[in-house]
Design goal:
single chain; alpha/beta; TIM Barrel; two-stranded antiparallel ribbon; 12 strands; binds iron/sulfur cluster
């Protein structure tokens, strides 16, 4: 096992990122082998349990209500629908279901109670359950833990500096607060980001500083390549070069040796050879299923064929950590505890987000 270091600096990370490619690949693959079985890939299925209509203004996201993106919004799926989807995912080789809801933050009430029921139901199928529901309080994280949640996803998206160019409706500290709330429970942390949003290499390194200096480091880190969706403020961003993706994966593997590094959005644009290079560089997790929330993803059968070709096998559930012990979720003590959300709404504006919003208003009028 490689000793995990928690005081990486931006300069050190940049030095790794900019190494000659063959050296970078060799270092990353060596660390990968010391900490993981290189022939095993964890497969997650991402399920959008509530789509669209989100009040936030994340510049990359077609689910933000303020942009005009032709996304078909949906109310919260039923518990039975979710269980049926989870079963389907299990049968096709997934060990984890990640449920995503387009919410700014979790609100206590009937919808959250239903999500807790979904978590219990999927955990009973002996699958790892992950949720990505926006910001949560410590009490809500605890209730999810008690329902059997295995992981909570909350991405940092980018560096603290570049974050201000992406989102204006919440701050970086809000992200870190949610991660800290999750950390106070036995739920594992999944946090990563997106490349290709117009950030520079320093920002990519800055994001890895923020993630790798968390102690403990996140158990899983998705590395997404932006899928530029028409109508969002980032519609004109150029596709991410495969070499950037490989460098980012390799650097993540080196600075976060024990983390499961996940190839996430943008995989449809990657060849099998490109993905194989990412696996060699330390990626050991993917999202399966034909859709990633709202954007396209490779077909499950195609992924299984790729694994066969590469001699790789899907990871069994609870390989890295045991199945959560479930107890009946307690009633929310949120009010009685006097716990108050401290989430900020920064007052700054991002020009391109405002432009996309104005364009959407015009299109709706027309
Ligand atoms: S990324 Fe999440 S929080 Fe941001 S607009 Fe999309 S659904 Fe809302």
């Amino acid at each position: 096992m490689t000793q995990t270091k928690h005081n990486w600096t931006k300069e050190e990370i940049l030095e790794i990122y900019n190494k000659p490619m063959m050296e970078l690949l060799y270092d990353a693959a060596t660390i990968h082998r010391e900490n993981h079985d290189p022939n095993v890939v964890q497969v997650s299925t991402l399920l959008s349990i509530k789509t669209g209509g989100c009040s936030e203004d994340c510049g990359y996201c077609p689910q933000a209500a303020r942009y005009h993106t032709n996304i078909e919004g949906n109310d919260l799926m039923s518990v039975n629908q979710v269980k049926a989807e989870a079963l389907r995912a299990k049968e096709s080789g997934s060990s984890r279901v990640c449920m995503g809801a387009a919410w700014r933050n979790v609100k206590d009430g009937p919808e959250f109670d239903e999500v807790l029921e979904m978590v219990r139901g999927i955990n009973k199928l002996d699958m790892e359950v992950c949720c990505t529901l926006g910001m949560i309080t410590e009490n809500q994280a605890q209730r999810l833990a008690e329902a059997g949640l295995y992981a909570y996803n909350h991405n940092l998206d980018s560096s603290e500096e570049y974050y201000k160019e992406v989102i204006s409706t919440r701050g970086y500290q809000d992200r870190l607060d949610t991660i800290e709330n999750v950390r106070k429970t036995n739920v594992t942390v999944c946090s990563g980001g997106i490349i290709g949003m117009g950030e520079n290499i320093e920002d990519r390194a800055g994001m890895l500083v923020a993630l790798s200096t968390l102690n403990p480091q996140p158990e899983s880190t998705p590395i997404n390549a932006l899928v530029a969706v028409e109508g969002t403020p980032m519609e004109d961003e150029k596709p991410v070069e495969i070499w950037d993706m490989i460098r980012m994966v390799a650097t993540t593997r080196i600075v976060m040796p024990e983390t499961q590094v996940r190839l996430s959005a943008g995989r449809t644009e990657m060849s099998r050879e490109g993905q194989a290079m990412c696996f060699f560089a330390g990626a050991n997790s993917i999202f399966a299923g034909d859709k990633l929330l709202t954007t396209p993803n490779p077909d499950v059968n195609e992924d299984m064929k790729m694994f066969e070709l590469l001699g790789m096998n899907p990871q069994k559930p609870f390989t890295k950590k045991g199945q959560p012990q479930t107890i009946e979720a307690i009633d929310s003590e949120y009010q009685s505890k006097g716990e108050k959300p401290r989430w900020t709404r920064p007052a700054h504006k991002i020009e391109r987000n405002e432009e996309a919003k104005a364009k959407a208003v015009e299109l709706r009028k027309g």
